[in-house]
Structure formats: C-alpha cells, structure tokens
Amino acid sequence: MLLAQRLLPDEGWDDASVELLLHTLSSMDSNNFRGRAGTGEREGRVFSSLVARRHYYLAHGVDRSGDVAAVQPKAAGSSLMVQLANALAKDVLPLAGMRAVQAALILPVATGMSLTLSDLEAGLIPLVLANVLVGFEDTGSGGYLNTDLAGMAAMMDGSIHMTKLVAVGVAHVINNAYGVQASKCVHEIELAMRSGRVDAVVQILDKTSWCPSTPTLDFFITILQMGNRRLLNERKQVAGYMRMKLNAVAMEEGERVLHVLSNEISFAMTLTTLCPNVTNMQEVSRQLTSLRFMLFL
C-alpha cells in the first residue's frame, strides 16, 4: 500500500521493517554504488560515519534546478523517500480534518522560513503589522492584543473587512504551526480553503509529528569528530592536490583548468575537444550538459 497507493499503513511498522526499507532506498543512490567517485556538488560525501549511519546513508542531495520537489536522477532512493514522505503528509492532513488539501511538501526549515518561502512562492509581499491593545468597554481595564487591521488597510490603500478576508482572490498563507492536533483550528482552516483562497498552510513537524530538528545534531557530531585542525587545513591541502591532478588531466586531453583569483572554491576545466565536429552552440551546450547525467551509469 505504501508504494502502490502512497498511503499511511493502518498499523505502524516495526523498527526492522522501517530500517529494511531505508537501507533498500539508500542502496539506490549513486553515492552508495560500489566503485563510485563522487566528485559532484551533492554526491553524499559525509565525514562522520556516525552521521552517515544515523541517516542510513541517505546523504545524496535531492531536487533539481531550484525545484525542491523535483526528482534527482542520481539519487533515486532519496528522491523516492522524499516523494513518499510528501505523499504521507498529504494523506495524514485529511485525517486531521483538512480534506481540501491538494498537495503537501516537507521542507527542512523552521516555521518562519517556511512562511517566507510560501509567501514568495505565492507572489506575496509580507507586511509587518504591529498588534494593538484593545480595551474592554464595560470596565475600562484589561484588554487583549489584536491585529491592526486599520494599519493593514492604510498600508494597502484600501479597506479590510474581517468577513471578506477569505474571499476569492485574497491570498492567504496560514501559520498553523501547532494546529494540526487542535480540531477547532483545523475546522476553521478547512472552511477557509473551501470558501476562499488559501495558498498554503504551514505546519511544524517537531510539535505535530514528534520529529526532531536534525541538522544541528548532525553538525554537532561532525564538528566534534572533525576537530579544529581538519576543519580548514585539510581542505586547503586537498584543494591544492585536486588542482594539480586536474591540471594534469587537462593537459593530457588538450584542455586547460581555468584559474579565477576571486574563486577559491570551484574548479572549472574547458571541454573544447569533446564536440569538435558540432558547430551549433546550442547542440554543444546540450551534449556537454548531458554528460553529468551519465557519470554514474
């Protein structure tokens, strides 16, 4: 049911079953192939074996050309895992009451950044509004904080009516960070999605799905095992060795390694001899670009 229908299992899997699936998926990533030579920018190079084992060797980068939901050809297992995770997230939200959800996307960022990314994707420009203190008319004391809708109207050069905020055409990105387990919040969001325009609803995993924030722990483990000396010194030594060997290959093939004084990170080598008989520059570009997809075939 998981692979065929991409739905949550009725009964939770035991540890052995989950680990078997993860090991199977990781074996499909090119960085885990026998005899690999990971020289690309996202080839799953992990310094700490503890971190590698903790992630079941699912270390290859996913997405393509800025599309975080795209499939990465050289990381079939990781891409499948991401697709399945998004599908399961989409499956669980209707169970909580959000039946109008059309898609789900898990992002490795915190709530605020997720909201920002959602705003940018929807083409929205965030307006920061101050809260205003509203007093109780009967006693004149106490009160509560409310969003400054008058200030919003002034900033947007128009009038804002609470009853029309979910009207069709009014963009909405809803911060529902902790709200999945609150049926009232879910019900109101469901009504908003059915009656008007809701571009995105942001949830947070560590509170709603009991998932920890892992990058900090990964960094902590790695930096402890790497130590101060290996953090930079070894990288500089390896970079020099890389340039020397790349220069040797370039000279042997009639190419040259570009030397850019302002860039100490990247290495670039000309490929003028690979398409000597092709005169159309678009075709040359296509053939050269296609080479990176054949590196691990």
UniProtKB/TrEMBL annotation:
Q: Which family does it belong to?
A: Belongs to the SepSecS family.
Tell me one GO molecular function of this protein: tRNA binding
Q: Write down the required cofactor(s).
A: pyridoxal 5'-phosphate
Which reaction(s) are listed as its catalytic activity? O-phospho-L-seryl-tRNA(Sec) + selenophosphate + H2O = L-selenocysteinyl-tRNA(Sec) + 2 phosphate
The protein's annotated pathway = Aminoacyl-tRNA biosynthesis; selenocysteinyl-tRNA(Sec) biosynthesis; selenocysteinyl-tRNA(Sec) from L-seryl-tRNA(Sec) (archaeal/eukaryal route): step 2/2
PANTHER family, sorted:
O-PHOSPHOSERYL-TRNA(SEC) SELENIUM TRANSFERASE (PTHR12944:SF2), SOLUBLE LIVER ANTIGEN/LIVER PANCREAS ANTIGEN (PTHR12944)
Query: One biological-process term from Gene Ontology?
Result: conversion of seryl-tRNAsec to selenocys-tRNAsec
* Matching Pfam families: SepSecS
What organism, scientifically named, is this protein from? Plasmopara halstedii (Downy mildew of sunflower)
InterPro entries annotated for this entry? PyrdxlP-dep_Trfase, PyrdxlP-dep_Trfase_major, Sec-tRNA_Se_transferase, SepSecS/SepCysS
Which residues, if any, are the signal sequence? none
* UniProt keywords, alphabetically: Protein biosynthesis, Pyridoxal phosphate, RNA-binding, Selenium, Transferase, tRNA-binding
Give the protein name, as stated in the record.
O-phosphoseryl-tRNA(Sec) selenium transferase
Record flagged with keyword RNA-binding: yes
Q: What's its job?
A: Converts O-phosphoseryl-tRNA(Sec) to selenocysteinyl-tRNA(Sec) required for selenoprotein biosynthesis.
**EC numbers, comma separated:** 2.9.1.2
